[in-house]
Amino acid sequence: MSEETPNPAPRQRKNRPVLQTCVRSCAGFVLVVCLGIVALAVWMNSERFANMVRGRLETELTHATGGRVEIGAFRWSLRHLEADADNIVLHGNEPANEAPLARISHLHIGVSIFGFLSPSIHLRSLVLDQPRIHLIVYPDQTTNLPHPPTPAKHSKSGLDTFFDLKANHIAVENGLFDFDNRAESFDYQSRYIPLDFEANDTSLLLQYVAATGKAPESYHIEAGIANFDLARSRQHTAPQVQGILRASLDLTRNAVYLRSMRITAHARGAVDHTLEITGALTSFAQPQWQAKLTGDLDLQLLNPTLGYPDAPQGIAHLNLTASGADGKFRIEGPIHIEHGSYTGGGVNARDMDVAVQALADNSELHIGSALIRPHQGGLITADVLLTHWLPLPPTPSIHAAPEQPKHKRFSFLSRLHKKQQPTQQPAPPSHNTLVENPPTILRADGKITANFKGVALDTILDFVSQPPFKRLGISATLNGPAQATWNFGDVKTLTVHAALNVAAPTRTPSGEAPANGIIDATYTQRDGGVEVKTLALTLPETQLTAHGHIGAYPLTSATALNVDCISRDLTEFNTVLGDLGLSHNGKTGAAALPVALHGQGAFHVLWSGSLISPHLAGNLEAHQLGLEIPPPPEEKSVTPHWITFDEADAQGSYTAALITLAHGHLQRGAEQIVLDGTLTAAQPILTAQPRKNLNARP
Description:
Blueprint: H1 9-44, H2 47-65, E1 68-77, E2 82-91, E3 102-114, E4 120-137, H3 158-165, E5 170-181, E6 195-209, E7 218-232, E8 241-251, E9 255-266, E10 273-282, E11 288-298, H4 302-306, E12 315-325, E13 328-342, E14 349-361, E15 364-374, E16 379-387, H5 412-420, E17 445-456, H6 457-464, E18 474-475, E19 477-486, E20 495-503, E21 513-514, E22 516-524, E23 529-538, E24 542-551, E25 560-567, H7 574-579, E26 583-584, E27 587-588, E28 595-597, E29 601-609, E30 614-629, E31 641-654, E32 658-668, E33 671-682, E34 685-689, E35 694-697
Parallel strand pairs: 4-5, 18-21
Antiparallel strand pairs: 1-2, 2-3, 3-4, 5-6, 6-7, 7-8, 8-9, 9-10, 10-11, 11-12, 12-13, 13-14, 14-15, 15-16, 16-17, 17-19, 19-20, 20-22, 22-23, 23-24, 24-25, 25-29, 26-27, 28-30, 29-30, 30-31, 31-32, 32-33, 33-34, 33-35
């Protein structure tokens, strides 16, 4: 009996419907997913979805910044993973009538997604067109920067997050940055006046550079300002500083390398000058930095930028290197200044050529090997040393904490009644309330040593003297040492001592007399006086010695100076007498004196009063002395009479208003005259008023 083989066809036919069902189900699911994706893509590219994203972005940015964000329009392309936004505005804490904190005309962003199971988003491109930043610092030291209500906590630093984006191209085009400080505290004069810095046509380009070999990943950054303006004034004025800026740097996760920064600036009526800065900052956790600064700096820019007015002109050529770590620094290098000026502290030194070797660190500022060449001629070598020269941090004010109110029991009705009362909100403080920083404390000890070589006396008078004593009618050059010291940064402790030899120059200016001699004197800022130890001058017709105290600053300060003089020509004092305001009958200086010396005279005078209002008292012995006698009243002529005496001996005093003759003895041949009297002045002409006390003995 043979066995029959079963036929498998019926079982296969039974499995086909199941398989077909699975295939159809999968195909339907895929179709539904595809349709869903297509529908989602269509919806995500719709205007409605764009408006929804725009609103969500406004909400999230408002929450993140604390300001009010507006986005005029938003578009994006899912296929290209790109988005565009127009008219983005960030309102800070500024009033409604002020320009907003930030405004961007157009923003374009493109991203790339790498990986499927673990995708990472990279920033392919970011372009900001015509961004406008308006940062305001109010007099109360607050700004218009908003603050988020709840600061976000990040596990990564902002720099790490930025590098994780691997931004291939970031660009800022046609930007503008306006820094409006309405009470600038960084001011040498502490005036708290407005400072306005505006950077027009700014550009920024960032490009990601992947790691290669030992070189880490980095961003290469190119930045520029085509035109920046700066003005410091209480009123809106034209820019005092203008210029351009170009910078190139490389940024890594732990370092920044400034390849080049060129700042070209100019003031009104001046040519352009450029500074170039290079440097590096490594190890952000433990910063170490180094830099080099070379180029030219127009010193008149110091006033509008730093508020420092004491260097109104000059070009400084710089070649400085700097480095620092662990809170310490060191800066050194040569500085050469052409046509420099210094106009502070009672000094008015202009048009000098200065070359120095500078060294600065945390403990001292040393300006050595200084060569100062005034334009009038001569040379001054100097060395400046300041210790403890950095300002001390201001001491904060400590106030007692307000007393905490005691807890009181309230009934339910009292609480309910309290809730019904409207709460009085305190008025917000005015931004116009000026808040001044604590004064900067300087405790520097200073020492300046100088040596004069062939410096004209007129040059020193130009530097330190005040009108009318800019000229003394003496032509001389000064040679020798001088030293200035002060302590604890207190200008009242300033002392200047000089021991100088006086030598007549080879050429004498017209109207001046050549002189030789010695000057040994000390100036103290405490009283603005000069203590003259020795003053000895020899002129062609005069020998002058003096000692005592001169009230130099201010000119109204008390003076007590003993002067001894032997002279054969009073015209050598013509300039000094003119400075003192002596005038008579249209004549000034020595010509206005009521005496004329034809022989030799010896004077001993005590100069008291002040330089501007002197009181001279002493005695005179002279040979061949001419005396001016006013004409008698009956004569109509105004021409005075002159009588020459063989010998004269007089004691008296002089002021600008009165000449008093306490005792006078005149001899002419065998005749002698003893007299006293006064001459009063109705400015500017002197008139004689004799006392009628004239005795003559044959």
